Every structure is written in C-alpha cells, then in structure tokens.
Amino acid sequence: MRKILIVGGGQSGLHLAHGLLTRGYDVTIMSAQSSGEVRRASPSTTQFSLPLALSSERELGLDLWSAQAPRISGARLELHPPYMPPAVLSGSFAAHGNGFGVAVDRRVKMADWLEFFEDQGGKVVIHGATLTDVDYFSRMYDLTIVAVGGGELGAVFDVDQSRLGGGHQRVITQVLVDRVEPALTDYADVVSAAQGRILIAPVLTADGPAYSVCVMGEPGGPLDGSHLRPERGRPHPGQVAEWIVGTLAREFPDVAARIQHGAPLDATAALVSRVRPHVRKPVQRLSGGAVLGMADAVVSTDPIGGQGWNLSSLCAQVYLQRIVEHGDQTFTPDWQQETFEAFWRSGGESAARLSDLLHRMWDPEAAEAMPHLTEVLFAAAQHQSVADRFIGDLADPRRYDTWLYDPESASAFLNEAAPA
Ligand SMILES: Cc1cc2nc3c(=O)[nH]c(=O)nc-3n(C[C@H](O)[C@H](O)[C@H](O)COP(=O)(O)OP(=O)(O)OC[C@H]3O[C@@H](n4cnc5c(N)ncnc54)[C@H](O)[C@@H]3O)c2cc1C
C-alpha cells in the first residue's frame, strides 16, 4: 500500500487525505492543531465554498453541512468605481454545480473533517512540523505533500517571480455576528470600492446560522483594521465590530446601518489578519527527497477574488487524480512539477488573472486602458443575463478566460447576451 504524508490539516490537505484514504492509500496527516484546538481557535474569514468546490466535497462524502447551512445561491454586488456611477447587480450561481454554495465556520468544518478522517482509519499526528521534521519523515513515505496554508513552513518553497500571482496585500478584518438588518436572502452581499471590499454572508457556526461581516482593505488605507490585532492573543470581537460599524458609517453608511445591531457571537468570533498573496515554486528537494507544495502553501490568491477555498479544493482534486493515475510508479520531482502544472493550468492561473483584473479595475488609469470592462459593468447593471455571467463565473474563473479579458471576446459576448 502506498504511503502518503500530508503536512497540514486544512482545506486542501484534508480534502486530499480523504480522497486518498477512500482509494486505499495509507495516509498520515500531520496537523499543528488537534480538532479540539481547531474548535477553540479564531475563525478564518468567510469560508465560502463556491458550488464547484462544494460538489467535489460532496463526491467524497465531505459535504456534512449543506442540510443545516444557509444556502448562498448568488451575490448582490454594489460597485463604486471612481470612473462611473455606482452600479448594483445581482447574479446567480445557478449555472454551476448544484447551483449554490455554503459558508461553514472553519472551526466546525476542519475539526469535523479531521475527526471524520480518523474515524475512517486515517492516521493523524498532532505536531507543528519543522523543516527538519519534514526532511526526516519524508524518507518514510512514498510522497510528502506540504499543505500548511499561510504557515511559515511554506517558505521552504522559493517565490516564483515568473508567474503572475495577481495578488496584493490585504488586511482582513472580520467578525461573526448574530444578525444583520434586513436579513440576507440566499444571496451574499458584496460592496466593492477603491477603498476596499465588504462581504456580508450567512455562515454556519457551531451555534447555528450567523453572519460573517468581512472587511478587506489595503494596508495603510481607510479599511485597514490592523491596529485591532493585539501583539499577543486575539482581537476583541466587540472592538472589531465597533470599529467596522464606525468606519463603514463614514465610508458606506448604508452598510453600517445594516450591521450596527449585530452582536458578536462569542469571545473568539473576530479575526484580523494580513494576507500576502504569492506564487511559489512547488517542488523543493530536501536531503530525504523532493516534497510537493499544495494550495495556499504555494499559490495564495488575493482574497478580493474570493477564490481561496475554491482553489484549494481544486488543487486537492487535481493532485488526487494525478496520484491515483500514477499507480505504483515513483513520485519523481518531474512528476511533482507536472502535477503542479496540471493544477495551474486547470484553474490556478485563471484565479490569479481574475485577482489581477479585480485589483486593476479600481485604478482609473488602468481602467481607462480596459474600456470593455466598463461596458460589461454597465450591461450587467441592466441585463440579468450579463449579471449572472459576471457574478456566476466567480464559481469557475476559468470561464472568464473565454469572454472577459480581451475587448473582442467581451464585445462578442455582450452582442449575444445584451443586444442593443
Ligand atoms: C486572512 C485570510 C483570508 C481569506 N479570505 C478568503 C475568502 O474570503 N474566501 C476564500 O475563498 N478564501 C479565503 N482565504 C483563503 C482560504 O482560507 C485558503 O485558501 C484555504 O484555507 C487554503 O487551504 P490550505 O489547505 O492551503 O491551507 P489552510 O486551510 O490554511 O490549512 C493549513 C493547515 O496547516 C496547518 N499548519 C500550518 N503550519 C503547520 C506546520 N508547520 N505543521 C503542521 N501543520 C501546519 C494549519 O494549522 C492549518 O490547519 C483566506 C485566507 C486567509 C489567511
């Protein structure tokens, strides 16, 4: 039986671990936290599984929450570009997977997956691995995969300057609250402007359905909540909620009014984190053999694209398929590199390209160079078919490659979807 070690028990590592286990592999997860520690940790942002990620989780028997979690069938997008009047568009995910996504608090999802993996016969070692550990243990396994997300161990992989990552640093400030007014329907609400982005989405927590209010700003900008993060310990949910309401009251008063009466769920319900997106070289040769990086450890995208969970699921799916297809052959460094390339081609690159566009659209000069984007936004505000495509394709950003980025394709799409 082939032995696989996965360092990191998060979205991608556990997804892959379950997939391999059900196919008869001997899988060990090395996780820095036990399931109990995960349950007591702070949340990690909106945890939104878009429809395709959810479908692949379902195929592996990992969709444990859709029956209880509020469904997210689309998004209502309020755009404030500096070069055109504000636009409001609502689009549905109906064309993708089963047509809806769900957001589940990471503390519930990862802890449940880890326990489920162990119940199914998977091996779990609770240990924050060092590079020396990985080098040592990798000799005992046919393949070692490093899936540590934003963990420091990811720095073992060198940054790859040759690939477009499209990401920019963001400060994420989030709080989980018990209500927003009026309550959301089955759509998530997104407000996007040059100052940053606000996402309000229903989320399933250990205490039942709640709302995630997530503010993404540029470091040093008006939506930067870094000062709320103490040097040690966790941010205080009450202070985070108060800062979000106060800041939005100045920048986006309508949004502030919606969330001002929401109370934080509990003493751990806030998060303040700086995200530094990157693309790294996926294969690192250690003295014990080459190890393969996975998901955020090697490709982390700009959170404004909302692709993190989608992409980590996709990475797990591609790696799973490649490992199984490889049968009993050796997992050479060349095979590892080609496995990453398969992931990059099947969605990694498209997600990076989307991040790049979503960042540049707030810069008037860059936007001037892409007049077709303004046309698409105008059309989306007026034609439901365009809005459904513009928003719905977030569920599968490869689809944007066929119509959004170059003026001819965008024009052909608009002629068909929104004839004059
Ligand atoms: C602040 C922030 C905001 C985000 N916002 C969004 C969003 O709005 N929408 C979205 O879709 N995605 C978002 N993401 C991204 C999403 O959370 C990730 O893309 C996804 O979780 C990546 O999966 P992963 O398996 O690579 O890493 P993770 O899910 O982060 O898992 C990594 C695991 O490795 C463990 N670990 C770390 N170091 C070690 C070690 N040395 N030894 C053993 N275990 C270790 C960690 O404890 C963790 O359990 C955000 C991420 C961050 C950090």
What does this structure look like?
The chain has 420 residues and is of the alpha/beta class. The chain has 3 domains: 3-48 and 56-61 and 105-166 and 277-359, FAD/NAD(P)-binding domain; 170-275, 2-Layer Sandwich (D-Amino Acid Oxidase, Chain A, domain 2); 366-417, no CATH class. It has helices spanning 11-22, 35-40, 51-59, 106-119, 131-138, 237-251, 253-259, 308-325, 333-360, 364-368, 371-382, 384-392, 407-417; strands at residues 3-7, 26-31, 48-49, 71-72, 74-80, 87-92, 101-103, 123-126, 143-146, 170-177, 187-193, 196-205, 208-217, 270-275, 278-279, 283-286, 289-293, 299-300. The strands form 4 sheets. Strands 6-5-11-12-13-10-14 form a 7-stranded mixed sheet, sandwiched between helices. Strands 8-2-1-9-17-16 form a 6-stranded mixed sheet, sandwiched between helices. A hairpin with a 2-residue loop joins strand 12 (196-205) and strand 13. Helix 3 (51-59) runs parallel beside helix 8 (308-325). It is globular and about 60 Å long. Bound molecules: flavin-adenine dinucleotide.
